[in-house]
């Protein structure tokens, strides 16, 4: 990794015939954020360009068969703006973290077997009013208070702006004619389901496609051919959420086989895709999965951990799923950006329902509602939907979190983003998460589900738990009477410093966090009989933020610590979630440690 000055000088650096390190060269793990890896505070808070470089030797057979093999370099995500070179040739440029991008590098690496392939990445974590999330650079020009050229990056979101290559980087191959994309949607009735598919092939127009769908025993239940069609499945095993069925997360395996003749050679590309058969519908009071009312009892999360920041961390990912299931949580929102594909795979497999949020967080400045931002937002939604459209766990898209949706341009902005999202994926409802006043919010008319965040007795009336019942009831009634749409309490919570106790409960103690939850829960219990369809605690775990006077080594609203130890509030929530799960007629799987709540 080579920190290389500020972005202002990038043009200069690139125009040189040979790029040389302009800063210290250090070892940097991938995937990981670079911020917390060293003892150097300037790297922790670094804004600007950093460089990564690595040499790899590619298998000989990838390089010799140059006509028919396509070599691809893929990044799971890199934060924020990336330029990638292979052997000094620029192969891809990508704007935005949290989503994958890739480049066909065949023409660069083929024809030179035995020569190492040098992958160079320039990354810039600077956020502007037009990036997602937006941010701005503020130069401090008062020479009596700040050194020359001093600047800070202002952000309007509450998590540390970790940067680096956050997800795995892989090299893979396909034939030169290959399956580029598959789109699957499902419909079902009691005894028969239809799986609609569309397959796009790139590289030739002369190819054949055959499809087969297997159940979990490996039995072929339907077959098809051609680039579009329908597979009929009799007596389908539906994909059910965790705790809604004794066998949640059932997925069939769709195998798509493409064959093409190219210059006398037979090329074959085979792609397998897990397919969950399920439907999603929204009424004015309910969220239906497979026709049954679904109540979101879940969490908001972050990709955040000690040392590796936002870098993918398998042990942590698996630990978090174990904690979610321990908690009896059936869902989460990917606050405030798309999570790693590895996490989404586990949601599909375990039946954890997802509200899939794009990085539209902190859209507060008027200039962030202009055409430039809007166009970028549309592209980000395209990338997100392309990545996650086939996931049964994803039941709703969230296009933003707490934007300044009362500003006049927000009306056109959200109408456009939501319409675009629906055009790309007509099968799922769309929302954004609001903290605006119900009477002033200009985006709410376009959402399918109202998702509202509130922090009564915390940011408003701090310390006054007694105001919660009235204020929360009023909040729900105002939204419902205005829109007649189901409502999710998409955030509520209180900070607690683990180990800090106080009775009567005082703010920041574990007791206060518990008491606040209980006040909210009593209102949820009344309103979920009407039109409230979910509650998502803020937050699953403590997480790092920018430094500030209201943050003690980060945000402490977790019900688990950052190291995933439960605070008292976790037990309150666990008891509640299992109780709610048991109210449904479908028995959850009996796991020994949960029997206490199942009796
Ligand atoms: C919110 C934000 C979330 C913050 C949270 C808080 O409304 O959506 O990103 O972390 O409040 O704790 O302030």
UniProtKB/TrEMBL annotation:
Q: What class of enzyme is it?
A: hydrolase
The record ties this protein, via InterPro entries, to: Beta-gal/glucu_dom_sf, Galactose-bd-like_sf, GH, Glyco_hydro_2, Glyco_hydro_2_AS, Glyco_hydro_2_cat, Glyco_hydro_2_CS, Glyco_hydro_2_N
EC assignment: the record states 3.2.1.31
**Residues in domain Glycosyl hydrolases family 2 sugar binding?**
39-175
Family matches, as SUPFAM superfamilies: (Trans)glycosidases, beta-Galactosidase/glucuronidase domain, Galactose-binding domain-like
Q: Which family does it belong to?
A: Belongs to the glycosyl hydrolase 2 family.
Q: Enumerate the UniProt keywords alphabetically.
A: Glycoprotein, Glycosidase, Hydrolase, Lysosome, Signal
Protein species of origin: Buteo japonicus
Q: What does the UniProt record say this protein does? A: Plays an important role in the degradation of dermatan and keratan sulfates.
Which cellular compartments is it found in?
Answer: Lysosome
UniProt keyword Hydrolase, yes or no? yes
Q: State any single GO MF term.
A: carbohydrate binding
* Location of the Glycoside hydrolase family 2 catalytic domain: 280-581
Protein name, as recorded: Beta-glucuronidase
A GO term from the CC aspect: lysosome
One GO biological process this protein is involved in is: glucuronoside catabolic process
In terms of Pfam families, this protein maps to: Glyco_hydro_2_C, Glyco_hydro_2_N
Question: Subunit structure, briefly?
Answer: Homotetramer.
Which Gene3D superfamilies does the UniProt entry name for this protein?
Answer: Galactose-binding domain-like, Glycosidases, Immunoglobulins
